[in-house]
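ok so for the tutorial part 2 we go from a plain amino acid sequence to predicted structure tokens. step 1 is just haveing the sequence, like this:
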Amino acid sequence: MSLAKRSLVGLDLTNVFMADVRDGVGVYLSVYLLTVRKWDPSQIGIIVALPGLISILAQSPAGNLIDETSRKRFLIILSSIIVAISCLVVIYLPSFYPIAISQLALGIVAPIFQPCVSAISLGLVGHALLRRRIGRNESFNHAGNMLAAIVAVFVGLYVSFEGIFYFSLFQCAALIVAVLMIRSQDINHDVARAAARTHQAIGSFWHDSRALLKDRNTACFILSLTLWNLANGTMLPLLGQKLGIDDPLNSAYYLSLCIIVAQATMILVAPWAAQRARSGRKLLFLFSFSLIPVRAILFAILETKYALISLQLIDGLGAGIYGVLSILMMADFSRGTGRFNLLQGLTYSCMGLGGALSSVIGGYLASYLGYNQAFLWLAAIGLFGAAFFWFFVTDPLENRIRPTLDLESAPTH
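step 2 — the prediction. this is what the tokens look like for a chain of 413 residues:
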């Protein structure tokens, strides 16, 4: 195997194992706390929201750090170790404050994974091949999520719910091995931050952040993704809770089926979305956005368990498109600025805000109005977000001549 080929295989495997690691114990935590530890949904909402709240503060500095450093692999490895520790805390210290602290730590390191992998991808293949590479990344990522969910089904049914968290420890170790397969010298770190030329200067964090956000199209795009996450962030955890109320012993099984259905769909959709994105981004992204209110309304109407689970096909279709296009559009908006990863950080900060608020709002709506009413409110938010995207975001492929961002007039580091 050639050295360059080894790095690309390592990137494939990184996406497989990162799928479940980057979210820590993921959506299983909410169901575990509800069905095994008997927590109140409002408490669960706070715990699930904590990583997102911290990520609001950590995402932008993380993106800035990824732009500045050539030690991107080390950042992923360190973050994986902290995720592993957070899984152990859930198992051995299952009370509110220890889990809250572990989720705060998770919120600090979670912003590292996706921007780092996107940066490494861009640094390995360049802009010309990024569309196909992101489609491949997303397919491997969703395959990893699906395989993890399949394992979780058997572990949850035949071992214990806690066994799912032990499996996450294995994934953390496997991710570290995969990252080490990527050779640092194969990564062009100037290309990895979308610099226009070699050794392009990096301005100060605050100056460059303001310059990026002054572009109206970029700012509206970020707000659209925030609304997406506000509507969609808590939908799967609430569905898992709704499925687990009447049958808590099989709650992990039902939730795993939800994940498997969605991820299997995303595996097929991601490369298709990457191919379709060649001719334009906006209509394809709008289609995926419009699926959020459709899915939420059906969650509110239907009660049969397997009918609800089958609706994850809609989630897979929408999220498969979203995962590819969100990264491609960030690369489009930041091309030539040398600040691709800072823009990722700014964007993921706002997305984290949307996801965190979604968890808190969803938890309280479910507690006081019931799950069906909570889904209807999420549908309304999703419909508003789709309308906002349509009216205020211009397709970057139709707006190739963008305002020059003054990213080099500030003092450099």
